[in-house]
Amino acid sequence: MRNLVAVLAALTGLALASGPALAAPVQKAAPAAAPVATKSLAPASAHNWNQTIVRTPRDSYLLGNPDGQIKLVEYVSYTCPHCAHFTQESDAQLRLGMIGPGKGSIEVRNFVRDPVDLTVALLTHCVPTKAFWPTHVMFLTRQPDWIGLEATATNAQRQRWTTGPLASRTRAIASDFKFYDMIATRGIDRPAADRCLADEALATRLAAATKEAEEKDYVQGTPSFVLNGLPLAGTASWAALKPQIEARMN
Known about the structure:
There is one protein chain. The protein is an alpha+beta fold and about 250 residues long. The chain has one domain (about 5-10, about 45-245): Ribonucleotide Reductase Protein R1, domain 1 (Orthogonal Bundle). Helices cover about 50% and strands about 10% of the residues. It is built from 12 helices and 6 strands. It has helices at about 5-15, 80-100, 115-125, 130-140, 145, 150, 155-160, 165-175, 180-185, 190-195, 200-215, 240-245, and strands at about 55, 60-65, 70-75, 105-110, 225, 230. The chain has a 6-stranded mixed beta sheet, sandwiched between helices. A hairpin with a 5-residue loop joins strand 1 (about 55) and strand 2 (about 60-65). The chain is globular and about 55 Å long. Mean pLDDT is about 85; it is low at about 1-10 and about 10-45.
């Protein structure tokens, strides 16, 4: 993995540059009382936790029951092949076994490694909150379709990705990697995408959050995980993480 300090410095510079109750008894001739909603009577499993997602104050996204017994944080980089592989293996199992029944939540935090990663991160933040998860999964599961350009790009393409204001860099990347076409399937047209790709404040915050993750949660690579507040080591795969989660579920 490339020198993270240098990457963070470059990214920061890039950002700066540029939820029926019974009705009450009534007289026979009286109309029935309206049903009263009673959320507290519904078991956690009755809630559609797979559709419950919030954006947090730290620009991360949390899917599931925040009061569940399992609180999983994933640090992800969109250009990380291991992250793509983890998502392909784990997404359905996590949503069925942990998220759906309300046993816990998973919070996705960006750990930005390079300009292409940053570009995808800005686009995933561009969609409405309720659309984040399918967009996030789309970019990772389709990573094999687009990642190859990183190795085959021309010098001219690389120049466009790394020089000039933030907006020109990210737009060049979005164009070359066909990200505009991908995000359009989520209802984001090109003008809207361009506005998101020019979000210097968000780019700066994501770079700062990456540095904070390295210092506070000891993140050195991706994917990395924090489970119930404890940073985990040696769990960069679903095969390694799954037993850790199951051991903490009733």
